[in-house]
Amino acid sequence: MILFGGKGGVGKTTCSAAMALRFASSGLKTIILTSDMTPSLSDIFDEEIGDTAREIDKNLHAVEISQNAIVHKWKQKFGPDFYDILSHLIDVEGLDSESRHQLMDYIGSAPSLREETMLDLIVDMAESGGYDRIVWDTAPAGETLNLIAMPKYIRRHLRAGARVFEGLDRIGKQITGKRSVADIMDEWISASERISRFLFERSTFVMVATPEALVVKQVRRVMETLNGYSLTIHGMVINRVIEHPDSESLQEVRAMQKTYLAELQEMTKGHSVAILPFSSKEMRGKRALMEVGQRLSRELLL
């Protein structure tokens, strides 16, 4: 799985789409997905893409993960367990049907559970779809780092909760005829560990940046964080670089970019780097994406 990440607006979706199309054209079964809550894959490919995986080209599937899809996944996979636990703590059966439904929707959309469920959904798609490559167009950098950190925090809290409920189970407060709450939490810990293994063993990160002050600062922070988690960084795409300024204003921008370009290249020593020139053309449709994908594949060694 290749994650394309960076500050909002630097070209992550374009690079993700171009690379996914390139993989597919070379005969690799590929899926591209976006976890951005304001997705633009449909606009980039100039084709309607929904929240269930569908084929948009030979060997290429795409999906825009929606909030509804995440809540549905949570209710399907974890909802029954949560219902068991809630039944142990409150009179869920005493609620009317609509109130029970609203309660489960509310729990399933809680930020930490939403992020963990999204990761679970992505890993399920990766493992069940038989894909050779998974390209993930991530949300802006801060949200993505929260997402990657979530399994660790979820496990920490679940382990604490499991210890509490083990004591309750031992003194007889059990879910009659069902698994104990501690057993349920142990299963969730195992599910979270599965997600972590996938991220750390089968994933690599490609930063997307532009030679601007704010972007450079955020890229530095993100790369430090990724290194802190020991996540694999494959390389970086430096986008919208002015190579041939043909006006005074562009010459000024080019002079400004030189400093930031040097900083980005210094950060990526030992990693692959692809430089994409500034273009006034709108990047849309498969033909334009294929040209970018070929360049990225060559320069990133993907």
Number of helices: 11
Taking all residues together, what is the mean pLDDT?
82
Structural class: alpha/beta
Q: How big is the Rg?
A: 22 Å
Instruction: Give me the CATH fold name.
Output: Rossmann fold
Instruction: Name the CATH superfamily classification.
Output: P-loop containing nucleotide triphosphate hydrolases
Task: Supply the key terms.
single chain, 302 residues, alpha/beta, Rossmann fold, 8-stranded mixed sheet, 8 strands, globular
Q: Would you summarize the structure shown here?
A:
This protein is α/β, with parallel strands linked by helices and 302 residues long. The chain contains 11 helices and 8 strands.
Please describe what this structure looks like.
The chain is α/β, with parallel strands linked by helices. Helices cover 57% and strands 15% of the residues. The protein has an eight-stranded mixed beta sheet with strand order 3-4-2-5-1-6-7-8, sandwiched between helices. Strand 3 and strand 4 form a beta hairpin. Helix 6 crosses helix 7 and helix 7 packs antiparallel against helix 8.
List strands and helices in order, with pairings.
Blueprint: E1 2-5, H1 12-25, E2 30-34, H2 41-45, E3 54-57, E4 60-64, H3 67-77, H4 79-89, H5 97-108, H6 111-128, E5 133-137, H7 141-170, H8 181-201, E6 204-209, H9 213-228, E7 233-241, H10 248-267, E8 272-277, H11 286-300
Parallel strand pairs: 1-5, 1-6, 2-4, 2-5, 6-7, 7-8
Antiparallel strand pairs: 3-4
